[in-house]
Amino acid sequence: MTTKLKGAQILCQSLINEGVETIFGFPGGAVLPLYDTLPQYPQLRHILVRHEQAAAHAADAYARVTGKVGVCFATSGPGATNLVTGIANAHLDSVPMVAITGQVARPFIGKDAFQEIDITGITVPITKHSYAVRKAEELGTIIKEAFYIANTGRPGPVLIDIPKDVFDEEANFKYPDTIDLAGYEPTTHGHPLQIKKAAKLINEAKRPVIITGRGIIISKAYSELKELAEKAQIPITYTLLGIGGFPESHVLSFGMLGMHGMAYANLAIDSADLVIAIGMRFDDRATANVSRFATQAQIIHIDIDPAEIGKNLKITVPIVGDCKNVLTELNKLVESQPRVKWIKEIEQLRHDHPSHTIRETEDLIPQYVIRQIYEITKGNATIVTGVGQHQMWSAQHYVYDKPNSLVSSGGLGTMGFELPAGMGAKVGIPNEIVWTIAGDGGFQMTIQELATIVQENIGLKIAIMNNGYLGMVRQWQELFYQRRYVATPLAGPDFLKIADAYGIPAIRVEHKIDVIPAIQKAMDTDGPFLIDFRIEPEENVYPMVAPGASLAEILEEPSKDEASLAGK
Amino acid sequence: MATMKRTLVMLVEDKPGVLNRVTSMIRRRNFNIDSITVGHSVTPGLSRMVISVDGATTAVEQVRKQLDKIIEVVKITDISEENIISRELALIKVESTPDTRAEIVRIATDVYRANVVDFTPESIIIEISGDEDKVNSLIDLLRGFGVIELARTGRIAITRGKLGPLPKTGEEQPKRPKQKKPKHQNN
User: Fold this and answer.
1) Residue A355: per-residue pLDDT
2) A345 touches chain B (CB under 8 A)
3) ipTM for the assembly
4) Do A305 and B69 touch (CB under 8 A)?
5) Which residues of A touch B17 (CB under 8 A)?
6) Which CATH number among 3.40.50.970, 3.40.50.300, 2.60.40.10, 3.40.50.2300 corresponds to the domain A366-541?
7) DSSP assignment string, A482-534
8) DSSP states along B28-64
9) pLDDT below 50 — which residues of chain B?
């Protein structure tokens, strides 16, 4: 059936056809006709953010927790450019997103009109694809394609730029049933011969290790991964974004690898004779010095993006395909075996290098706080973090047994992600517990979203690891720049007064003894809650691989005596 | 690692912004383009690009795969290892005097089978097509007389034999004249 609709109506109707329920956005001149149309479609919930960057981050986190495409709206010019960080973040972490920006009306394009910016040009390197719409009649097809591209293959953000007068233009509307994209055919099934080769390597390996990334979560290959690990008795380590792909308390889980990974995970990889990399991309934070990464190992790399294979590392057996499909086929060929000797060997590594233990102290240390959040939520929470020390502590000391239970900014490392992402995650899974763990630096980058949280009554729990520093940068200054703390001390603000001003209940915790009651209080309070944890100011993240070092050269937490000798 | 000149042939959808996506990708993956040519392909709606790059095989393969991820790129093939014919066209404006004119024309037409396409008392324009070595060597020879201006198209290439590196994605359109649109040149 074909009906005549305005461009804005075509857009809304197409979004509904794609199953969109929530949009994060901020209005402006170029999108006025769109916003004027929104009330006609009450199925679409619009959440008004306080800055467009937050709209993109919220849509990003919403997509990560729901598996659906996140949608955000912004106006032309500054509205569009404010989305850029959020779009880049989604691009680096392979998150499906459709960003819709207004553009000046067609007669003004190219004239440097008020609030005109070439947003499709700006976002070429950070989008999977983008569209500059020129006619209302194209909109249906474009939106159909955009959602398909965003959420198939390796997911990513797609931007649609729509001129103001296109929203008002009438066109025949019939939502297309099919998609015709000659240049886009993701390979989803692995090549049988390559899978056979991989199975042979796995069956012959003496010391295999699996490394997983976000690909496991995107393709929901949880049970296939578990089957492979258990059947062939292969220990699993994962990247930051791979957390939540495999139950952390499983006996075969060896935790996160990399710069701040578990020492035993890194050491296991260093002594492995086979690395099976699944849905990960050998990021430098995971591999450390790539030329000395897993030097004794042959490498199997399974990824849906062919361009990731061989990009950073020479691969013995590449397999292009969706993790779930490839693992299903691979599991048929992998032999069951006990591998007692190897498991015993790395259990010993775990015993000798207990990176996950938290030191006994009366001080208020962040590791303890995060472990208590785990204990009190019984591991049922979804944890959202920003970037820096609090992010690494959250990765290390919460126990992620629940699938897909960590939302963090990985590739781009975006400070300020935590609050809007926590908001987006909570909107996506309103019946689940969502905690944002923030640093006092990143929190202030998007602090304005407290207003959105209150206006929309989003029941997000917020824990600020407040050390009065840009902690990770300070740690590097301590270790590599002779403790010259340039531009890292942060003075204030009083987060309780801030929370009060926005209307969010909050408490401050300065002593270890108050941690548990505070977290409990947050859990017992309906709606949002904020806790300002005044943690040890110069606490460092350990273990740590120094820049340029290999995974095996991991530094473990110095004992208190060593630390005081070092002048701490 | 040893580098060599490599030739990538692409079929891309004829849409605004495609050239920008291609060059942006090559730039941000830290690659230098020797030349890039864009023109119509045999299939309406698809353009054919030929990109010459200098690089190690593995690095060029990485760029090939990255370019293949661009949605409008329908097909991309590295034809460097194939039996190919590659051509370039150049227009060379050379200073001439009554003393040198005959010699310039002789070199161009007799030795290089090039055409003289413009003649003034002070200058001659020579049109040459051929592989890059041939074009380079004529230009080198003419430098002695004074090259005033030089316009080169960059390399176009095609594989020998019936099978092409790119699939036919539509009806053959033999009537459509082949055109060349030089877009960028970087010697």
Assistant:
1) 84
2) no
3) 0.90
4) yes
5) 120-121, 124, 132
6) 3.40.50.970
7) TT--TT-B-----HHHHHHHHT--EEEE-SGGGHHHHHHHHHHSSS-EEEEEE
8) HTT--EEEEEEEE-SSTTEEEEEEEEEE-HHHHHHHH
9) 1, 169-187
